[in-house]
What does this fold into?
Amino acid sequence: MNKNKGQGILEALLFAAGDEGISLQQITDVLDTTALQATELLEDLQEEYKKKSRGLSIIEVGGVFQMVTKKEHSEYLKKLVESSNSASLSQAALETLAIVAYKQPITRIEIEAIRGVKTDRSLQTLTAKALIKETGRAEGPGRPILYGTTKEFLDCFGLKTLKDLPPLDDVQEEALEQDEADLFFGLPS
It folds into this structure.
């Protein structure tokens, strides 16, 4: 296989693999080549992306290769996300998401017991935005749906794992401090 054709196929593989990425072993298997040849193809393609004024680059994370956007274009990507039609999450949805993140797997009834209000709409919104998903069914009457967070949730909040969430005590302290600050801003001058 010639170099240009190999790079084109590799580029297509990286694009198709998306956030999951592709390992060197997968590349060698698909291209029916050696690890050395696959590595050379990767390095050559990485150099091509560096030379040209492109918006993408190829990185290795955790043993897999991914095609990612360049950091220098982040302000434009941020504008795109902010100007998109997808509305930001409501306070109710954010509260529900926080409960799911810290207490997962959790049922709708358990979430409602914590929040004190219905959460059907928030759960629908969070599921539609792929921030939470059904993770199974609880034992007991009616076998209620259990909810948990998704990989998209981790990506959205810049977390590698759920262990990267701030400890709940810190979150509670910050909320208390914020409430106290709000009280002070509400005082007449």
Summary: The mean pLDDT is 85. The beta strands are 22-23, 56-61, 64-69, 106-107, 132-137, 145-149. Residues 168-185 form the longest helix (18 residues).
